[in-house]
Amino acid sequence: MAARGLVRTALTVWRLEPLIEDATLVVTELVSNAADHGRLPWIRVGVARPSTHVARLSVADRSRVVPPRRTVVDDDHFRGRGLLLVDALALGWGTEQYPWGKQVWAELGKGGAA
């Protein structure tokens, strides 16, 4: 997946290699959600560095449907656990809505999730 390569490259350049494993997992979940639920022809992946030790991963799509925040795992369903994983690995995550769609983001930093 190109998104994982983008994240891996950016974190290596920024010397944030300890974040690579969690960050590639998080971006995979965000891209998968956008592909599964957005069902639209494109998504945009972003990687930013808002501070020295923090990386912000984002995935934008044209769907305006906001992903639900789940607090428990439903053992009867094999799907729907990705954002619980994102929540566990990230310092924080959220959604920004725009007239054309939405962006789901997650921030990871040295020291793990808060």
Distance between the termini: 28 Å
Q: Give the helix tally.
A: 3
Estimate percent helicity: 25-40%
In CATH, the architecture is 2-Layer Sandwich
Kindly report the spatial arrangement of strands forming the biggest sheet.
Answer: 1-2-4-3
**In CATH's first tier, which class applies?**
Alpha Beta
Which secondary-structure class do the elements indicate?
Answer: alpha+beta
CATH homologous superfamily assignment:
Histidine kinase-like ATPase, C-terminal domain
Work out the radius of gyration: 14 Å
General shape: globular
| CATH level 3 topology | Heat Shock Protein 90
Biggest beta sheet attributes: 4 strands, antiparallel
| Helix-strand pattern | HHEEHEE
Low-pLDDT stretches: none
Description:
By secondary structure, this protein is an alpha+beta fold. It has a single domain, classed as Heat Shock Protein 90 (2-Layer Sandwich), CATH 3.30.565.10. The chain is 34% helix and 29% strand. The chain contains three helices and four strands. It has helices spanning 2-13, 20-38, 82-89, and strands spanning 43-51, 54-61, 92-98, 101-109. A four-stranded antiparallel β-sheet has the order 1-2-4-3, with helices on one face. Strand 3 (92-98) and strand 4 (101-109) form a beta hairpin. Helix 1 runs antiparallel to helix 2 (20-38) and helix 2 (20-38) packs antiparallel against helix 3 (82-89). The mean pLDDT is 88.
Task: Give the topology.
Layout: H1 2-13, H2 20-38, E1 43-51, E2 54-61, H3 82-89, E3 92-98, E4 101-109
Antiparallel strand pairs: 1-2, 2-4, 3-4
Helix pairs in contact: 1-2, 2-3
